[in-house]
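To the team - phosphoric acid mono(formamide)ester complex, inputs and output below.
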Amino acid sequence: VIKTRHLLDLDNADRTFIEALISRARQFKAGVANEGTRLRGSTILGMFFEPSTRTTISFQIAAQRLGAAWVDFRADGSSLAKGESLEDTMRTVRATGVDAVVVRHGEAGFPHALARYFEGSVLNAGDGAHAHPTQGLLDAMTLVEEFGDLTGRRLVVSGDIRHSRVARSSAQAAALLGAKVTLCGPPLLLPQRTPGWGFAELATDLDSVLPQADAVMLLRIQKERGTGDEMPPPDDLARSYGLNIARARLLAAHAIIMHPGPVNRGVELEAQLVTSAQSRIERQVENGVFVRMACLERYLGTSARERVA
Ligand code: CP
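Output:
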């Protein structure tokens, strides 16, 4: 992930990579002179085959703030629907002068397929239940803003872990910065091996892990992905692995509440907690703009250099 021109996941990321992007994002947040010239002349294509609010808007704003042009690909109105192959579509996209593609798709691995056919940069904005790397980075930035050094801090991620691309990317980024991660959910929605994904502790009882949490991240029930026998009834999942006001009292006073959004109020998170003093949900969204500026600058900068070379 570090040496390529694509941001597909955080599987091969290291601490230096995460820290560099967060540091740059924090610079953008504090204000960078001439930010609007950083990517002037670049063109970014947004290819969103699944719904999105936060990721689409923040990528668009990030592109605009850096001076890049943003063009939307109309998935349902494209020539893919007329039988054009993905390879030919991506060659066509490149021929029009697009420098980078930001892609969301319901199928895990779809951005990797695009990257095979596209000579510019591909940034994954969420693929199936696989990865959402910029969400992982913005969550890590939010934790760093809150706690500074994450060494020894504990992030608890609760709910439908199995079908969540956010859980994996956010846990990876936090762990790379030294945080301890606990994945909490029913056994069939947790990784099957301990430690989970090679680094995370696993738990099935949320009440027992909340008192040790510095941050708790609730997950939406991924109804669009989890339709199999592994899914408990949504009410049971929400009752056991969601956060309500009574359960939030188990948290330490300094602990923060996170959610990647969109939130189903009253399901995985009681409505009052969304905007409570402990909530950092809006901060996560705010940080998404700056993290995406840092990512676009890094990856478009790379492809621009390669074009010159
Ligand atoms: N967190 C996230 O990816 O939100 P959107 O689906 O609204 O982009």
